[in-house]
Automatic annotation (TrEMBL):
Record key words, sorted: Repeat
UniProt cross-references to PANTHER family, sorted A to Z: CRYPTIC BETA-GLUCOSIDE BGL OPERON ANTITERMINATOR (PTHR30185), PROTEIN GLCT (PTHR30185:SF16)
Superkingdom of the source species: Bacteria
PRD domain: residues covered: 71-176, 177-281
Protein name: Transcription antiterminator
Alphabetized Pfam families for the sequence: CAT_RBD, PRD
Length: 281
């Protein structure tokens, strides 16, 4: 990253400084050792900064991060910057700057809960692995880094939560929205099992296919994207598999109610096909 010549306004710690370039708005620069030995008025020479420096430019994000730095250990702040760099390098994607706040805050307080002997659970762990396999694999490596570097053994539940933060940051979606969509999918799965009187195998390929379909269906509805299906196919499915067809419309009702958006009719056709495959197995 090529930086302009910033003037340091305040040093928050060795890895976090508040800076300004000429009359531009203030930014927070994050980089291991970037504030070491610095004081207000010093310049941040672009030639001497760490290889990877992050800029927090959003005012609200800056305020939240400054408050976070007050409560979080300096070494942990630096370690989390390495984690974010690892995520960017591994995915080849630029991340939403909010991950510096969201993931740091989440993992710091998770460690506090572990120290206090509190249990961390994640009822949607298997679903998260199926929905976001690449992010989940990356989260597993981050859990290993915590063990190797900090001697902290994060519970399995955290792998799922970290994966959601990675997905949120690399797709620039609010992590609360990602969580909300997962909750809707969980509600849909419960409805399927109840209406069709089945207990789905969470490890089966059909279940993973269903989850992926539900994920993209929910995202399509949330963004207003439409999907079409031939009316002839819909009629055949309705006549041949009435229970699956009526259940599909129950699921559409859940999406419309929770997302407060209309669901294209074509979604019912594809949902019916997935449900029929599940029941036939």
């Amino acid at each position: 990253m090529t930086l302009p010549m910033y003037t340091i306004k305040k040093v928050l710690n060795n890895s976090v400084v508040i800076c300004q370039h000429d009359t531009d708005p203030e930014v927070i620069l994050l980089g291991k050792g970037i504030g070491f030995g610095k004081k207000p008025g010093d310049l941040v020479d672009p030639a001497s900064v760490p290889e990877k420096v992050y800029q927090l430019t959003d005012k609200e994000e800056q305020s939240q991060y400054q408050e976070l730095v007050k409560h979080v250990d300096e070494d942990f702040i630096a370690f989390m910057q390495e984690i974010v760099c690892f995520i960017e390098t591994s995915t080849g994607k630029k991340v939403d700057e909010h991950i510096h706040i969201g993931l740091t805050d989440h993992l710091f307080f998770t460690m506090k809960r572990i120290e206090q002997g509190m249990e961390v659970t994640n009822p949607f762990l298997l679903e998260t692995e199926s929905l976001y396999p690449n992010e989940f694999a990356l989260a597993e490596r981050i859990v290993d880094m915590f063990h190797e570097r900090l001697n902290v053994l994060l519970p399995d539940a955290e792998t799922g939560f970290i994966a959601l933060h990675i997905h949120s940051a690399t797709t620039f979606k609010n992590v609360l929205e990602v969580n909300r969509h997962n909750q809707i999918i969980g509600q849909i799965v419960q409805t399927i099992e109840s209406h069709l009187n089945v207990k789905m195998d969470r490890t089966s390929l059909d279940y993973k296919r269903l989850l992926r379909h539900l994920r993209y269906a929910v995202e399509r509805v949330a963004t207003g994207e439409t999907v079409e299906a031939p009316q002839k196919i819909e009629k055949v499915l309705r006549d041949e598999y009435p229970l699956c067809y009526s259940t599909a419309w129950e699921l559409i009702g859940i999406m419309e109610r929770e997302l407060k958006r209309p669901v294209p009719r074509g979604e019912a056709t594809y949902l019916t096909m997935h449900l029929q495959r599940l029941t036939s197995r």
